[in-house]
Design brief:
- The protein is mostly helical and 105 residues long.
- The longest helix is centred in the middle third of the chain and has 16 residues, at 58-73.
- The protein contains four helices and no strands.
- The model has no long low-confidence stretch (mean pLDDT 90).
Length: 105
Amino acid sequence: MNTAVINVKVDPKVKVGAQKVASDLGFSLSALINGYLKSLIKTKTVHFSLTEKEEPSEYLIKALKESEEDRKTGRVSPSFDNSKDAIKWLNDPKARFINGSKANK
């Protein structure tokens, strides 16, 4: 088989972890990388997946809570049928939220 060498710098922990996963699946790390590169060429897509549940950051949790409070109190924009009207509302210094408070301060 005709082969080429690709040198890639990775964190040693990443390499060890990847080798373990490859081994658990019954492959060498080289075989998995070859398979991935062939898939990349064929599909022209990249997929990343986390098997563990991803936890939101404290910042995201706070932002979601603030957003929910804004929605409950009506501090949200009106609905729009097209982007022109939405942009016009965003640029209007007299724009108001659904609850009547000023949107542009």
